[in-house]
Amino acid sequence: MGEFSTLLQQGNGWFFIPSAILLGILHGLEPGHSKTMMVAFIIAIKGTVKQAVMLGL
């Protein structure tokens, strides 16, 4: 962890945060993350787009 904090202090770590977010989004799109169950739940309760977005967060 010390090396990462050194990179951040030097200003060279700016690339890591957006990269981590992008990789997390891509990982969430992979199979096995209960997307079908979440969609079924939203349909079953006649949920709104806002509720679907909040569930996805």
From TrEMBL:
Keyword entries, A-Z: Cell membrane, Cobalt, Cobalt transport, Ion transport, Membrane, Nickel, Nickel transport, Transmembrane, Transmembrane helix, Transport
Transmembrane segments: 12-29
Gene Ontology biological process terms from the UniProt entry: cobalt ion transport; response to cobalt ion; response to nickel cation
Membrane-topology annotation of the record: Multi-pass membrane protein
A GO cellular component annotation in the UniProt record: plasma membrane
One Gene Ontology molecular-function label: monoatomic cation efflux transmembrane transporter activity
Family statement: Belongs to the NiCoT transporter (TC 2.A.52) family. RcnA subfamily.
UniProt protein name: Nickel/cobalt efflux system
Organism: Salmonella enterica subsp. salamae serovar 30:1,z28:z6
